[in-house]
Amino acid sequence: MKNYQAYFIDLDGTMYRGTERVEGAAEFVQYLRKHQLPLLFLTNNSSRKQEQVAAKLMDMGIEAYPEDVFTTSMATASYIARHHANAKVFAVGEEGLVQALQDQGLELVDAGADYVVIGIDREISYEKLSKACLNVREGAALLSTNGDVAIPTERGMLPGNGAFTSVVSVSTGVEAVFIGKPHAEIMEQALAKMNLSKDEVLMIGDNYDTDILAGINAEMDTLMVETGVHRFEEISAYPKQPTYKVKTLQEWLS
């Protein structure tokens, strides 16, 4: 088994399911800390700020700090700022997305936007979707923090951001540019943040369509766990397989 210089770790379904900590999650992170192996929690969840994500993990007994967290909101805001400094943005999303956009000096507007950004929003409304569609029809570029159509929680699989994004795309006929896993943008930014090459980092996650494909697409090694979205038998016929498969992260350590 290869020794890696750092680890990208998914959250939903890998570290926790909703408010429940996943088996082996705390022990795995503790092992990395003990051996001074860098990690980055890489999440498609755009709703929370770095500090909030780290606090949630800490409350679950998983050692985490704000600088260990890289969200799709942060990657999306960086993408916009790089392509259009001081852009005007209409955002559908929660405080994590709003904060990330503001941190990049982007102006939040209701109309006349250069970009429309769709992030998970648990107070989604017809009016928010209407404003998104109107801005896109007036020429705004359409970005989505991620394409997850469903997300794992303690209640089961609930609607994800990809479901909201599809409403705007179908209504306007405009395809969204996706930033989060499995797309290249977030992976390239994360590698640059760690100042490491793709062969030095292992991508860990539970969702084949996001976490594992993100690693595969980035030509990175991947580790899939069976604690969230997908089971191994579901992906057994796929031509591209994870580098490693373990039921839980505890099994990886044993």
UniProtKB/TrEMBL annotation:
Domain of life: Bacteria
One Pfam family hit: Hydrolase_like
Cofactor: Mg(2+)
Record InterPro entries: HAD-like_sf, HAD-SF_hydro_IIA, HAD-SF_hydro_IIA_hyp1, HAD_sf
Alphabetically ordered keywords of this record: Hydrolase, Magnesium, Metal-binding
Family to which this protein belongs: Belongs to the HAD-like hydrolase superfamily. NagD family.
Name by which UniProt lists this protein: TIGR01457 family HAD-type hydrolase
Organism: Halobacillus salinarum
